[in-house]
Design a protein that fits this description.
The structure holds two protein chains of two kinds.
Chain A: E1 8-17, E2 24-31, H1 34-39, E3 47-52, E4 56-61, E5 72-77, H2 81-88, E6 94-101, H3 107-110, E7 114-120, H4 125-135, E8 146-152, H5 161-168, E9 174-179, E10 189-190, H6 193-200, E11 207-212, H7 215-227, E12 235-238, E13 254-255, E14 258-259, E15 266-268, H8 269-274
Parallel strand pairs in A: 7-8, 7-11, 8-9, 9-10, 11-12
Antiparallel strand pairs in A: 1-2, 1-6, 2-5, 3-4, 3-6, 12-15, 13-14
Helix pairs in contact in A: 6-7
Chain B: E1 3-7, H1 11-18, E2 23-30, E3 33-38, E4 64-73, E5 76-81, E6 89-94, H2 96-109, H3 117-124, E7 126-131, E8 158-162, E9 166-171, H4 174-177, H5 190-206, H6 216-221, H7 229-232, H8 241-245, E10 252-259, E11 262-269, H9 290-309, H10 319-323, H11 330-338
Parallel strand pairs in B: 2-6, 6-7, 7-8
Antiparallel strand pairs in B: 1-9, 2-3, 4-5, 4-11, 8-9, 10-11
The chains are: A alpha/beta, B alpha/beta.
Amino acid sequence: MQNPYVPYPVVVDKIITEVDTKDIKTFRFKFVNPEDEKKYAYIPGQFGELSIFGKGESPIGIASSPTQKGYVEFTVMKAGVVTSALHEMEEGTLMGLRGPLGNSWPLEFLQGKNIVIVGGGFAFTTLRSLINYMLHEDNRKRFGNITVIYGARNPGLLLYKDELAEWAKRADLNLNVTVDKGDATWKGKEGFVPAVCKEVAPNKENAVAVICGPPVMIRFTLPVFFELGFSKENIITSLEMRMKCGIGKCGRCNVGSKYVCKDGPVFSLAELDKLTPEY
Amino acid sequence: MEKRLIKKDALAGIAKKMTEGFLVWAPVKKEDNVIFAPLGKSDEPFFSYLNSKNAPKNVFFPHTETMMKYTRTGQGMAFSSEVKKADKSVLFGVRPCDAHSFVLLDKLFDQEKYKDEYYIAKRQNTTVISLACVTPPYTSCFCTSVDGEPVSSDGADILLTDIGGDYLAEFITPKGEALAKYFGDTKADAQADAKKADIAAKAKEAIKSKIPAHEVKPILDVNFDNPFWNTIHSKCLACGTCTYLCPTCHCFDISDEVKGSDGVRIRSWDSCMFPMFTKETSGHNPRSSQKERWRQRTMHKFKYYVDMFNAISCVGCGRCVMYCPVNIDIRKIVEDISKL
């Protein structure tokens, strides 16, 4: 049995600078031992521990979809010791990857439903995983209408720009990209995410909203969905806490009796209501 | 169950004899303290102790432990995992409250989905010999309030009980029976059993400190926001002594250390009492003051662990009560919660 504390060796295969400020990059990893890729079978919404020896580990949501074979991607903001070291790395460098960890977006629950994805800023990463998973030809018919509402502060801070352009061409996806403030070249929507949600007004019938973003966005977006008639069972989100082990033992990421690393990070609002408000 | 009688003064000799085949952790006097340490050739085990200063959890869960090693290569760090083959060990003469803590720690480290091989390897290779408390060691002992007893075999492979001139040795598990040969060949009779039962009842009776530990769970369920939490922490220094000495506290940190081209990833004890414990890179801290940290420690022991594993995560050893530098008393806290 795999020792859950020991990472799989991976190589940094590709680095994509996502934003104008250059502090958010997507790292594509390939497994050194090809058989490890099978062991790393993940579901959108799970996370991994990026492991840089000599620096430590950082828990990051998986940004690629399991339908993308041969590699796994993480979009990482330069913030602390580990992520700063990661941002200094070059393609070809050897490092470690643990996981996949945590529960996931509830794919079985989402099946057959109309899906509304709401993302803000840098928190779009595991939502991108879910979108790419649902849009894959093997999976698309398992889901109803897909509506995506994604916002960033300005056009330069939008992640996955090439992919957004591809998605925009699809007829089976209602894509709404917005920025708080556009620039000279921006031709898309301007406005905050909650306002755009109000304008798009997704129908609550047989629908689930998957919402992930900064706390301020969540705070103003939730009332919009309540007003549209979405129940708390049908609003799903993902939590973040400081983590070390990622497997419910080191004792720091618990919210009440639940470990965010092991029992989360994904919870419905109905589930969150039952947890102690300490996150 | 196999039971034997051994002369009281034979105990130290048995422990020393075992060092020939085992790594023997036994209580030894170090300066003013009695602590559990590997017994060396010239060391004398000390069995007339009340309780050890440290909880012997470090036998399975050391203060600091290497998890893996790595070396710098041209391409980056290459690593190798390090689950050392655990030495065949004996933990000799541990108090029943501390042996009870191992049962509680097993629930966490030996779960079905994620097994902690570092802990499990040492636990499986260690035989636990409990030394019953025939007289209550301290007035701060409250094991009987938290599913323990002064004469209890919970968590033990062998239980030793002082029944007057002799120790009654009871071999509880096959692991314990495998060591029976060290304990002579005097079979215990029914008289010894009767003596033990009498002593056990008296010892239990003698534990005077009682807390309503089993009553507080439903109260904690609905009192997360009670103003009660606003004051219990006010004299706390956040020194971490309570968590360091606690037999059931298991929180740890994982960190990397590099020297030249080589390095190790280690885990070391951490504490929910420390401000940095939950502080995130963004600066956000979900447990931002000592109030939240004290609520976490109390809730973890008397509610969260019960929710998760159906067991209170406190063994009533009283170490946190005795050694808290500002006299915060968990017994008083539980008592007060029961009145909320």
